[in-house]
Amino acid sequence: AEQPDVADRTLWRSGDLVTMRLPRNLPHIAIVSAPARGGGLPLLIHNIGRGTEETFFDFTDQISLTARFRYFL
Length: 73
Fold this sequence. Notes:
The protein is mainly β.
């Protein structure tokens, strides 16, 4: 189910799914990984055509967050 406060990255947890729009309005999806070293904001695991990467996304005018989902078992 979609969570409230989608853009508040301090609420993101490992395993959450994040959808976004890349430049040229391309849809993209990623999985939230562990927080960055030093307790920073979480990294995202994704594949944008260069193989799987774990990176930090800076959501700006170029990359916009569209939703975050968390599944409970």
